[in-house]
Amino acid sequence: MNTPSLRLIVMGVAGCGKTTLAQALAERVGLEMVDGDDLHLPQSVEKMRAGIPLQDSDRWPWLDRIGAHLAQAHPRGRVVACSALKRVYRDRIRAQAGEVFFIFLNGDFELITQRMRQREGHYMPLDLLESQFRTLERPQADECDVIELPITETIDDLVRWAWTAAQSHHQQPTPSTPQTEP
Q: How far is CA 37 from CA 41, 154, 164, 170, in A?
């Protein structure tokens, strides 16, 4: 049976470690990695740099580009770092990309604020973190393609847990996959 390659999204608010985990997964298991920030339109980046939160109308084309990127064939799979803060955003990516597995990096406001103060060279100002937390819709139990991981753990542990969960999810038969009796 020919199984499709993995399509992973590392998600969460700004400063939670999405890019770090996505890069580590890509390096350790041979996935192609793209930072969703690189798929924003220049005008969206300028808005964020100016401290203006994006509106859904800014996000739809971006989410479509992420979904289209994930939908492209790749021998091993792809991982994208993308906030995917609302359920409707995740659903939009699912509609474009097909089977996707989300890794939700969860952390509290104070810790992420501390991390954002320490990072350099990123266009996302600390001022927008509150709007990210307000926008965040935590994945619910019926989103069976999501694992939640705490940002307080080591990157090695996060990679191991994320990869194990993604492989387990990827190997489960979907309703469209024929099942055979043992």
A: 9, 23, 26, 26
Tens-place pLDDT, residues 115-166: 888 766 555 656 778 888 999 999 999 999 999 999 999 999 999 999 999 9
Strands (E) across 69-151 are located at: 77-81, 101-106, 146-150
CA 56 – CA 88 distance, rounded (Å): 10
**Per-residue CA distances from 80 to 31, 52, 152 (Å):** 10, 23, 21
Q: What is the dihedral of CA 77, 91, 34, 133, to 10 degrees?
A: -140
Q: What is the pLDDT of residues 78-96, one digit of tens each?
A: 999 999 999 999 999 999 9
Using an 8 Å Cβ cutoff, are 122 and 48 in contact?
no
d(CA 175, CA 182): 18
Return d(Cα 152, Cα 104) in angstroms, integer: 13
Q: Which residue has the tokens 């939160």?
A: 53
Q: How many residues does the chain have?
A: 182
